[in-house]
Amino acid sequence: MPSRALKILLPTVTGVLFVLAWYAIHYSMAEEMRFLLPTPGDIILALRDNAESFAQAARNTATGALLGFGCAVVISAGFALTLSLSPLVRISLYPYLMMLQMIPIIIFAPILVLWVGPGIKSVVIITFLICFFPLVVNTTQGLISTDRNLLELFRMYRASRLQEIFRLRVPAALPYFFTGLRIAATVAPIGALVGETFAGSSAGDGGGLGFQAIIYSSQAKYPALFATAAVTCVLGFVFAAVVLTLSWLTLHQWHDSYERTDT
Amino acid sequence: MAATPSVELLDVTKRYGDGPVVLHRVSIAAQPGDFVSLIGPSGCGKSTLLRLIAGLSPLSDGHIAVGGQTPEQAAADLAFVFQEPTLLPWLTVQKNVGLPQKLRGVAPTQRRATCRRVLELVRLGDRGDAYPRQLSGGQKMRVSIARALSLSPKILLLDEPFGALDEMTREHLNEELLAIRQQEAWTAFFVTHSVAEAVFLSNRILVMAANPGRIHTEVAVPFAYPRTEATRLSREYRDLVAEVSRILRSVESAVA
To answer: Structure pTM?
Structure first.
């Protein structure tokens, strides 16, 4: 088992080597081609020079991602509960759920913009569509995978249907739910970004990171474009970190995925 | 006047759908306080018999009376200890033990008092706040037994509860089970594969045969309670274990 110091040291070393390699590649390129790979320094400068607009864009994207993600969590929970109640309901609805997932966002986004107009509404709907499927599938799987012995136990004690659902099926499904939540949280910012590239607009709040990327790309501002990617990464990390923390808080005391293994 | 049998089975027959007959005309009359062990080759329907008494599965034919009622009506008097500990991993030991009471709507103060009492009975009074995964196999089984005792059942149904444990732990738990029974007079039906365990625990052993499942022989165990480690060392005990093993082998070879 690597020590704690090593766990911090090793990724730091990797990071430093990565940045050095980046500079090496940059300066080994022909001078007139170097604009294709701005150095980390250039990117940080671009970030600093446009700090205001980056902060605003990140806020907008985060809002869209959070709203879409939040709606997906709430609606998918209710939907999964409905699906778990009967195999007949599952059989009836599953193909259409699959279809929802198969909708190509690239084609659907322009249609959506026609329907509800560009802006945050479209972004939220696209994020929702991307987050919904992994949440529903995982949560439903969790709700119907309850240990048979435990179900028998509840029957033995003559538990009501509601007691069985809320005292047994729902808590037993939590690890599955969090698996879906982790997937959804990592795709939510990307979903919002994709949504913004189609449906973002500069109207009012100046648009999100996706919209900004299109602008910087068309203006050939490559350091700023790279900076947009970096900000998106950070946003994704924050989303993932929050969900991982929630998952840890809920599960670490009893679920085997958090067992301390000293090997 | 004879005491009312606390559990009476009359010509109990069970088959699943059109499948083979699992149990054929089984009749048992258990007196209050009996400790009845069911032993027999796999497929003789001993676990099925337990589930029928518990009301977990319907009879195909015959009649079961628990204190004069059907198993469904007598649900409050029955408790079942499964082969696995079947604890809810997200609840602490204390809350696992309190679960049956919670499902019945028992008030929290009374619930806590009962939990303390039954956890003391199984000598886990200090582990109430632990989660199941922090316990050993034997401790988990003790929690499972405490949970079964939490509703003060009159009849305890145990389906090979110690089958997965090592010999030492099993012997300890056997002694503990009998010690608890000195304090709480329930009638027990105990399914097991271990002849030694059956002889040590019960006052009646029903040796069952398979195809179809039926009662082959009843063996009375005359040793007085309380039984201890000394009982296991006695000559009479070992003779009876040998005798029951011989009957069991004859039943098994008849099948093979």
So the answer is: 0.86
